[in-house]
Amino acid sequence: MSKASLSNSGNILLDLFKWRRPLSIFTFIAIVLGAIISSPLIITPTFKATSVIYPTTTNSISQALLVEHNPYRKDVLEFGEELEAERLLQILNTDEMKNQIIQEFGLFEHYEINPDAEHANTWMNLAFNEHFSFKRTELMSIKIEVLDEEPKLAAAMCNRMVDLIDVVVKRVKQERAEQALVILENRDADLTTRLFSLHDSLEVLRSHGVLDVSLQAERLTEYYAQALANGNTSGARALKKEFNNLALYGGDYFRLFEELELVQEQLNIIRFEKENIRIEIDGELTNRFVINRAVPADKKAYPIRWLIVVFAGMSAFIMTLVLLYIRQTISNANID
Questions:
Q1: Beta strand pairing status for 288-292 and 132-136?
Q2: Dist. CA 31–CA 37, nearest whole Å
Q3: Which value, to the nearest 10 degrees, does the dihedral of the CA atoms of residues 90, 96, 101, 107 take?
Q4: HSE of 111 in the Cβ direction (CA atoms, 13 Å)?
Q5: 92: which residues sit within 8 A by CB, 6+ positions away?
Q6: DSSP one-letter code for 302
Q7: Within 13 A of 135's CA, how many CA atoms are on the CB side?
Q8: How would DSSP label each residue in 69-94?
Q9: Which of 92, 185, 201, 256 is least surrounded, with the fewest CB atoms within 10 Å of its CB?
Q10: pTM of the model
Q11: Interval 228-254: pLDDT, tens
Q12: For the chain, what is the largest distance between any 2 Cα atoms, rounded to a whole number of angstroms?
């Protein structure tokens, strides 16, 4: 270390010793003021409640459990990743979630905001954002934090936010499912009407003796050949008449029967989809894994009193020291 450095260090120590009285007084005053300001009399302490949840990969009962050989099937017990976590954050930040919490816990009164004031909603949004936070962690979980003066209330609101996720998702799914059911019901009715019409048309053809075109054609050919071989001309003529009848109505029967099978297949698919949608509406599959539920805190989260006191004391010490150096510099300049 150079002599100049030693000299500067010595001067600083001498200055500190010389100014020990004002430095001590102002630092002590700042510490006392910091302790008073950070006391519960000035700043109301707030308590933090925290819940940690993971998103699920799917919330569809039919797709996860009932549909076999589904290429898009996901494990119902698997934790979701980034995409699912972002969706969960979007749900938590919806107005529906916020308004439900405000209504259930009477937050206008709790935060002392007049609901009839001109900018009541603006003030409520500011207060809500100050007390509620939703963050995605590095491990793709979602952390819900609630600050409040009452630890039990903070925990209750935090846990209610977790539970409301399923309520909101179910409401959205139910609205869409009901719309889909209306479409499927209309299509079901149309196909059922067409099915009955095809059955009636086939019954008319059956009354003309057309029951199974392929089988009847095969049997009539066999019997006609036998009749000709045995010289049974009357029998051959009767069989020929049956052939003509089958030729007249067989094409229509075949076409109607194919259409009947197609309509029945479409109807089965629609009724299967309707059943899956009803399962989604009636059943409940959670949209989140709750890793940690909030409990009432036994220690305040804000203010951190010791930090305020230390910061106030250090700030006062440094500020006093700077002012004293400025004063000394000005005095030396005037002397010169």
A1: unpaired
A2: 10
A3: 110
A4: 25
A5: 134, 142, 144, 161, 165
A6: B
A7: 10
A8: T-TT---TTSBP-HHHHHHHHHHHTS
A9: 185
A10: 0.63
A11: 566 666 655 665 666 556 555 666 677
A12: 153
